[in-house]
Amino acid sequence: MKKQILLTPGPSQVPPRVAEVAARPMIHHRTPEFREVLARIHKNIRCVMGTTGDVFILASTGTGALEAGVANTLSAGDKVLCAVAGKFGERYSEICQAFGMNVVEIVKEWGGLVTASDVRKALESHPDAKAVFVTHSETSTGALHPLHEIGPVVREHGALFIVDTVSALGGVPMKMDEWGIDMLAAGSQKALMIGPGLAFLGMSARAWKAYETSTLPKFYFDMKHYKKRWEEKGETPFTSAVTLCLQVDEALQMIMEEGLDNVIERHRRLSRACKAGAAALGLEFYSENRSDIETVVRVPDGIDGVALVSMAQERFGIKLSGGQAQVKGKIIRIAHMGYATEQDVILALSALEMCLARMGFDAPLGAGVKAAEEVFQNEM
Ligand SMILES: Cc1ncc(COP(=O)(O)O)c(C=O)c1O
Predict the structure, then answer these.
(1) Domains of the chain listed by start with CATH number
(2) With contact defined as beta carbons under 8 Å apart, do 39 and 275 qualify?
(3) Of 95, 141, 96, whose CA–CA distance to 114 is shortest?
(4) Does residue 380 surpass a pLDDT of 80?
(5) Res 150 pLDDT > 80
(6) Which of 103, 203, 352, 378 registers the highest number of CB atoms within 10 A of its CB?
(7) Dihedral sign (CA 371, 267, 117, 288)
(8) Ligand 1 within 6 A of 167 CB?
(9) Does any ligand 1 atom lie closer than 6 A to the CB of residue 164?
(10) Torsion-angle region of residue 111: left (phi > 0), alpha (psi -120 to 50) or beta?
(11) Which atom of ligand 1 is nearest to the CA of 137?
(12) pTM of the entire structure?
């Protein structure tokens, strides 16, 4: 018998209550019944995003929302600053380049952090920059960018602040309005607890002002269509991804029932326990300012990281993630986001320590699990 536990930083586990919604008979997207669902999603996602402004639901993965953030605010040739400290920072830069922006990258080594002071320096060197792009939780490295410090710096300069919170939203605090974020892109398959295929885009009044002068080509992702249809009918302009909307409605209701603060605190607790377990095994963390949605550690010298991830899945049914691109085989990523519990952290650490032991790494069996259990016991 094989039982698989999905502990990757997207897609993440879907609660049974949310999965069951997908089996309901289809409903039409231009009905009062569905408009009620959309209205509830809007209300709840605004709360999770920390905004009273516009939020749009896109039938796309997170990258669609990243692209929409660019296409609706800028024009070819505009100078933009992109914080690049991992794969998803690189993606923002690639999207901007594809649209013909004049991209200046603020580069940090993978695992590092672009700070408010880095952004300030870059804006001083490039006062004509129209926008600053930052990845909230850099999923490829596990680093969390300090948006609350970067936002005021960007606002002071007058540039737009455009943020990718695809993997972070619902797992760590987000205060879009308070932090001065103008475009906020989120995805469905991470801490929001449904499968891939839905994205959300928060858009500030300043972003709408920029929209008026933006000349980049857009149609499907032209937010004018979304705003008009929403304001006139409470609907999406194109056919809604009905099933995914019904599911995210359920998932957001679960978040509201648990309480957003409690959900964030649960992520913190799981993160603290998982990181304590990893440290007890003598593993080295990969990134600075570690995000609470995942624990990312370096693969110890002499261990084959790709084989370790395969062994955890094949032998123990625990699906972890390895590294992407330049860190393939060099890091292990354990996600504890969305529908993740204390038991998941214990299972992940247990599988990790057994695999490491089988591969010759010298760490006592049970050390990681014990350290995590101690965190849970002390915080009960
Ligand atoms: C931080 C971040 N940004 C963007 C993306 C891309 O999202 P998608 O694959 O849903 O297009 C991901 C996916 O892992 C991500 O973690």
Answers:
(1) 16-257 (3.40.640.10), 260-378 (3.90.1150.10)
(2) no
(3) 141
(4) no
(5) yes
(6) 352
(7) positive
(8) yes
(9) yes
(10) left
(11) 1
(12) 0.98
